[in-house]
Amino acid sequence: MIDEKKYTKCQLNAIVLLRVLIGWHFLYEGIAKLMKSDWSAVGFLSQSKWIFSGLFKWIAANPTVLEIVNQMNIYGLILIGLGLIMGCFTRIASYAGILLILLYYFCNPPFAGLFYSIPMEGSYLIVNKNLVEAAGLLVVAATGTGKYLGLDRLISKWIKK
Amino acid sequence: MNDQKRTPKDSSTGEEKKKINRRDFLQGAATAPVLGLFGYALYKQQSYEKAQKAALLNSKPVPSGLSDINVALLGVGAQGDVLLNAMLKIPGLKFRAVCDIWTDFNLKKAVNLLGKYKHTVNAYEDYREMLDKEKGLDAVVIATPDFWHAQHTIDCLKAGLHVYCEKEMSNTLEGARKMVQARNETGKLLQIGHQRRSHPKYIHCYEKVIQETKMLGRIATVSGQWNRAVQPDIGWPEKYAMPTDRLKKFGFQNMHQFRNWRWYKGLGGGPIVDLGSHQIDIYSWYLGSNPISVMASGGTDYYEPKTHEWYDTAMVVYEYDTPQGRARAFYQTQTTNSANGYFECFMGDQGTLVISEAGGRGSAYREKSAPAWDEWVQKGYISAPKVLETPAAGSVALDVRETVPADEHKIPVELYDPYHKPHLENFFNAVRGNEKLNCPAEIGYETAVAVLKVNEAIEAGRKLTFDPKEFIL
Description:
The complex is a heterodimer of chains A (161) and B (473).
Chain A: H1 9-35, H2 42-46, H3 53-61, H4 63-86, H5 90-107, H6 129-143, H7 151-160
Chain B: H1 3-6, H2 22-28, H3 32-57, E1 69-74, H4 78-87, E2 93-99, H5 103-116, E3 122-124, H6 127-133, E4 139-142, H7 146-158, E5 162-165, H8 173-186, E6 190-192, H9 200-212, E7 219-227, H10 244-249, H11 255-259, H12 271-287, E8 291-299, E9 313-322, E10 325-334, E11 342-348, E12 351-355, E13 362-366, H13 374-378, E14 407-410, H14 421-431, H15 441-460, E15 464-465
Helix pairs in contact in B: 7-8, 8-15, 12-15
């Protein structure tokens, strides 16, 4: 439970803003993939590099597994996005988001000497926007602002009743 | 930070904590309006994408209650087979008769294929017999060797049929002229098989890129090519070889000539005609004018000249007086290497269009100094740009005379059907009176004038000029 006494309103609102923006990004990433009927993670997965590449390439090579992963990714993104925006199960949504982002990160890590055929915008070395977004979610998870502004406030009270 | 600020005034404490009050509801739903905003933004984005898609479809209505067209096929060799396979995907066609002199092979194959699609057809060796016996025909699709086109087309037109004739319209201008005359006299339709004229990507680029937006600016140069890998001569199963007297009756010396007629003078026109004429046709179409001169270098450099009388390599330079001013166009066809395949490239002072019948190949490149193309991207005429990488400063020295490479915008229109299907459809819809021909005889004639002169220019070894009257009948 967030201790609202510990933080100023300004600090809390800033974290809520961070939470809502990351949520928006997740939600649209999910919906955009949902709307694009032919979307698949296959290209992203099959160019995987580094020590986990075997796992990601295995997913890409197995149509059934790939389809499950695609669907989990789409609906995972949408649910996490909704959770973050609405402040609903904020902690679960944040950790799930971190997990998802780290999967993306370790599928295509921007480490020295690795290159990818799907172009990335910008220049990255070890730290990329995925990692920054994951760190943002860590802040959201650590502060649990859903109980300040969000449905978690109602949920927690309702449970306590 | 001071302590007072640390305590938000609206925080709930003690007993109050367990009761849900009005403030809790307000705070609980505080971020819900974000979803409303998201929904609105999503709606905006969706309608934008929808409008883009609609702009690309050219909204051709699906015709209903098509009247059947009775079709005959004249010549069902390699090209006839391609056309037949495309036509089998077109509704409203009743195949009635097929004619081919290679009765044991081509003719049988076509009849069998049509049989599989429940078309019972009469087979003929002699097209005159077909025209005599088959009454009820509406249209004929001719895919015989070039030197037969004129006679076949004229006789079919005179028999009252609408004609789709493969390009090259004829191997001689005299033949092509007579075809146009016969068309005029009979009042029947004559479509020439320059199928790019009906290709949605080519039509899109002509209407939107060239005409409406003029996004390329002033086009001063054009280039294009068809590079094809080495191919062996076309053979034949020995047991189906036709006797020499039969071959001679139809204008061939032997089976090799019958199978490889494209390489022989008097029968075909060589690669510049077989391949080049498709693309040189696009030059004239997009530039809005016919060439005023041509020079060319070519020869049979690689293959055996006895069996390859026409040039295996041709490099051509045309001059055009376009409505915008003078333009020069290079064209190359060679048959010993496939590098970069086939495409046409129109270069204006504001942009470049690279287009090809090959799937996935079609892009516009904006010159850095040109006005923005954002409006055309938003309208869906071209895709959002892919910024091409500039060489990093230092690693490659960028000369002051060099310009930064242009951004690439993909042409978002593709054809997912056989290449010839839209052109054939256009012909049959014109037969029904619903459309105008995309490549009527006079257009095919103009292209024949421009293309056949290349072989003359190679022979002459100098620049040849066109009299504008040459293009007019």
